[in-house]
Amino acid sequence: MKRQPKLSILRGLLFTYDIENIRDLEREEIIASKNVNDRKELIELFDTLTMPEFFTYTKEDQKWFVDTISHYLSVDESFDSVFYLFDTYFDDEIIDQRQFMKTLLECLTRYHAEAIQNESKN
């Protein structure tokens, strides 16, 4: 059964970047070193910090994240509720939340495809 998109799950996915996450100086420095509004640097950041965590999720949960972001992008969601009171280690404020989510979706889609491909090899 396919799960319904749920905007609230995205806060959990992005918890890596939240100040309330357990202090990890190395992770904080990586986050602060990237320009969150530069697509290339954001992809590098997701590849470094989000990808390893994403691979720990079940394939069904991975698909749920991909489907959720896809759905909310298609209905012109602003993602304000995801970023509301979201204190991060980013040096800059996220200027375009939809672009941030489009970049995240692109990365998650790539990670999910890689996970499926790796599973089929085993």
Summarize the structure.
It comes from Pseudomonas karstica. The chain has 122 residues and is mostly helical. The protein is 61% helix and 0% strand.
Q: Helices and strands in order, then pairings?
A:
Layout: H1 9-13, H2 25-33, H3 39-54, H4 59-74, H5 80-83, H6 97-121
Helix pairs in contact: 3-6, 4-6
3D structure, described in words:
With 122 residues, the chain is mostly helical. The chain has one domain (9-121). Helix content is 61%, strand content 0%. It contains six helices and no strands. The chain is globular.
Largest sheet: none
From the spread of the alpha carbons, the general shape counts as globular
Number of helices: 6
Q: Low-confidence spans: pLDDT under 50, at least 5 residues?
A: none
How many separate structural domains? 1
Structural class: mainly alpha
Provide the gyration radius in Å: 14 Å
Distance between the termini: 25 Å
Can you give the mean pLDDT? 92
- Tell me the strand percentage band: under 5%
- What portion of residues is helical? 55-70%
Please tag this protein with its features.
mainly alpha, 61% helix, 0% strand, 122 residues
